[in-house]
Write a structure and sequence with these properties.
about 800 residues; mainly beta; 22-stranded antiparallel barrel; 44 strands; about 5% helix; about 65% strand
Length: about 800
């Protein structure tokens, strides 16, 4: 009944909501020939007129080869007119839509005649521009309340996006693929997301949220794709932008420490200088983007109460004071060889230095006895180097392209932990060291051919990825470290893929159909002396189709239907055999027996253009087999909890998303995003192998959840803008439990100075300091509750200058 009620409410919402149109320019091209001789006709007059009243929009003449190109055409119905002395004037109706940036009119044959014919005009009501509803694009310049922070922090304010446990979720799902400039990199993770909290938002131009990716994208990430686009200026001459941001976090202590540990961070500094340079002259365009982000952060401040079936109760706190130095440099050169060939060579360097000083005390039920104090120092250095070569050949027809790219990425993770394990009767020193080198080679070829009513896209991609890792444990007396679980392991995958995509558009119908065929061969070679896991792997050859069909009801209303099939391949860290001791008694372990999760998505979207805003609704249903999740369990005679990835039962996610955006008055605009969904994971039984075989069973979990995000922008004057953002996240299910509701408010203001070249901004995140992560977990033979009072409140002041 609850599902039926949700579907009924969603249908009613869809019936009254819709999305704005946004103008997008298109280039029309073609060539002219003599009808009899088939020879090219140079210097033919080409005129584009509106079909409604025959008003001239633009015009040109054909070149020596009879080719023409008309750029910057807005969507609508037109008449294309060809006239040449000694030939009959020819006209043909043209519909320009929003799905393709280039439309090829093919060959237009003119017939010799000295008679001047009357103009033939086909009259049709013009159509407004509308988006495909598969993607939303957000400019970082408009995100005033999160300026000066990281990419992860900036994403918290984007419609449809939430952040939980350091991961981005789209519509309540964290299976998100993150790209940089359309490419997967080790900086953000291959397939999965990582490192977003340490990439400065100051380096980014815009972010694309792609809910329904086409076949040209990698098949990974069932929740969708986030594409982070770096800044790159193409103005003539030398130009750029410099900026500096500073801030303070953890302005006061929200919950005091448990006894006998070191103080938690307060008044934590944030520093972010940034520089962007560009030089363009003739056929050369050189660019440079450099950013440095230093932060001190109360990264974790979690209070946990564990209750076991035998009556044992343990109270603990995990406090982590973190210092982070993150440097990113992106530079390259665009070389326009000639009118038809362009070569781009670029490189990216990232260095992330993390120092964690942490304390984890464990007490009995009434805090009268300290059972253990676990104090640690984590010293981690992550280094990323990426080189890219991209070649583009433009055929004579506008928009007819061949793109070829080669990308190499190297990523090193050098991680060292040092522990003091203080027990009532002994004190010992423990340590471990992890070294992981990741090498990835990507080769891609993409071909685009404009058609009269759309385009064809096709291409292939080859990836080879290898990650050798080495974990060494150095346990002390009475240590919880499992020294036998260390050693070497090597992850290797090869993924060839081929795709095809066809886009068709008329003044009433939009259609897109694509297919990606992907083969994967993965092998995970395990140290033969490992006490639990053995060498494992898998392979598959799978199709990943996508379909979109849209009907334009009228100029302001359109309905679209989407379908796609995607896969979530376990990442290397998900199957990594080494236990991770960032918590001394709740230990995370990978699983080399993990297999891919295949997901199907069906979505119905409806949109309507408004004069000063838009309404948008989408009803979606996602269903997955072999759902990937972490399972927490215990083994006999031990209070240690092991959290291990497993493939469990089928899961579903059914929901509705609405965006209501409106310019209320000249000085105030509002964007309200609402998401409601029903999540369900079927009952399951799995066997965990580590540290010894044990069976875990769980009943079906389901919940109604959602979130509300309200962005308010105030244009206080020509030079002053402000933004107020309110976010509410409803309770939701997590593996074996639930997470409680959360609420926060962000505020920002910016002022333009120096004739628009300079800008000051001031903002505050989690202004009321209300954002606390509260969880309840139920396992076999135990349960626990946790409250994480980590740093969320930050105030920043910054200045940017363009030249």
């Amino acid at each position: 009944m609850r599902i039926k009620t949700l579907l009924l409410v969603s249908f009613l919402l869809l019936s009254v909501t819709n999305l704005t149109a946004q103008n997008k320019s298109v280039t029309l091209s073609g060539n002219t020939k003599d009808k009899v001789s088939k020879l090219a006709l140079p210097f033919v007059n080409v005129a584009l007129k509106t079909s409604k009243d025959a008003t001239l929009t633009t015009g040109t003449i054909t070149n020596e080869e009879g080719r023409f190109s008309l750029a910057n055409i807005k969507a609508g119905n037109y008449i294309l007119e060809f006239s040449f002395t000694g030939y009959k004037t020819k006209t043909q109706s043209v519909y320009v839509g929003s799905l393709s940036e280039f439309l090829d009119q093919g060959t237009i044959e003119l017939e010799e005649d000295t008679t001047i014919l009357q103009e033939v005009v086909v009259v049709s009501k013009s159509n407004t521009v509308s988006e495909k509803m598969d993607k939303k694009t957000f400019s970082m310049a408009d995100n005033i309340s999160q300026s000066g922070g990281s990419i992860l922090q900036s994403m918290q304010n984007l419609p449809g996006v939430t952040v939980q446990d350091g991961k981005v979720q789209i519509r309540g799902n964290d299976k998100v693929t993150v790209l940089i400039d359309g490419k997967q990199t080790a900086l953000t993770g291959f397939g999965n997301q990582s490192g977003l909290d340490n990439i400065p938002a100051s380096a980014i131009d815009k972010i694309e949220i792609i809910n329904n990716p086409s076949a040209k994208y990698d098949a990974n990430g069932n929740a969708g794709i986030i594409n982070i686009i770096y800044k790159k200026n193409k103005k003539e001459g030398f130009n750029g932008k410099v900026g500096f941001t500073s801030g303070l976090g953890a302005l006061w202590e929200r919950k005091e420490n448990l006894p006998t540990i070191r103080p938690q961070y307060s008044l934590t500094p944030k520093i972010n200088p940034t520089v962007s340079l560009n030089y363009r002259k003739d056929k050369i365009n050189m660019f440079f983007q450099g950013d440095y982000l230093y932060t001190e952060t109360l990264n974790k401040n979690e209070f946990v109460t564990r209750t076991y079936n035998d009556g044992t109760i343990i109270n603990q706190q995990l406090k982590r004071n973190r210092n982070t130095h993150f440097t990113t440099i992106k530079s390259g050169i665009d070389w326009t060889i000639n009118d038809y060939n362009t070569l781009t060579v670029s490189g990216l360097f990232g260095s992330e230095k993390i120092i964690d000083n942490g304390d984890q005390p464990f007490f009995n039920e009434d805090y009268s006895e300290r059972l253990r104090l676990w104090q640690f120092l984590e010293d981690e250095l992550k280094t990323t180097v990426m080189g890219t070569v991209a070649y583009q050949h433009k055929f004579k027809e506008a928009g007819h392209l061949l793109n070829m790219g080669f990308n190499y990425t190297f990523h090193r993770e050098d991680e060292k932990y040092f522990f003091d394990n203080i027990l009532p009767t002994s004190t010992s020193k423990d340590a471990f060291k992890l070294l992981s080198d990741e090498s990835v080679v990507d080769l891609n070829i993409d071909y685009i051919k404009p058609l009269k009513y759309g385009r064809i896209e096709t291409g292939l991609k080859l990836r080879n990825r290898i990650i050798p890792t080495n974990m060494q444990f150095f346990p002390g007396t009475n240590s919880p470290l499992d020294a036998d679980a260390g050693g070497e392991a090597t992850y290797e995958e090869i993924i060839p893929a081929v795709y095809g995509n066809y886009i068709y558009e008329t003044n009433k119908i939009e259609a897109e159909i694509g297919l990606r065929l992907e083969y994967l061969d993965l092998e995970y070679e395990v140290n033969p002396n490992h006490p639990t896991y053995k060498t494992d792997g898998y392979s598959y050859l799978e199709p990943f189709p996508n379909l979109r069909f849209a009907y334009k009801i009228n100029d302001d209303n359109k309905i679209s239907v989407f379908y796609n099939r995607r896969v979530d391949r376990p990442n290397e860290v998900d199957i990594r055999i080494f236990p991770k001791y960032d918590d001394a008694e709740i230990i995370k372990v990978g699983n080399p027996g993990l297999r891919p999760q295949f997901t199907n998505l069906v979505e119905l979207g409806f949109k309507r253009n408004l004069k000063k805003g838009y309404l948008y609704s989408a009803l979606y249903h996602r269903f997955a087999d072999a759902t990937i999740t972490r399972i927490a369990s215990t083994v006999p005679n031990s209070n240690l909890i092991y959290a291990i990835f497993q493939n469990v039962n089928k899961s579903t996610n059914t929901g509705v998303e609405m965006v209501i955006s409106q310019d209320i008055v000249k000085w105030y605009s509002s964007n309200l995003n609402l998401i409601a969904y029903y999540n369900q994971i079927g009952a399951f039984t799995v066997q965990n192998l580590y540290p010894e075989p044990n069976t875990f069973s769980a009943d079906k979990q389901d919940v109604f959840s959602g979130n509300i995000k309200w962005n308010n922008t105030l244009h206080l004057s020509k030079k002053v803008d402000a933004q107020l953002t309110a976010i509410y996240l409803a309770p939701d299910i997590i593996p074996q439990g639930k997470i409680n509701s959360r609420f926060s408010i962000d505020l920002g203001i910016k002022k333009s100075i120096q004739n628009g070249k300079g800008e000051f901004f001031l903002n505050a995140t989690d202004l009321l300091n209300t954002l606390v992560i509260k969880k309840e977990i139920q396992g076999q033979n135990f349960s626990y509750t946790s409250n994480d009072y980590y740093e969320t409140q930050v105030i920043r002041l910054g200045y940017n200058y363009k030249f």
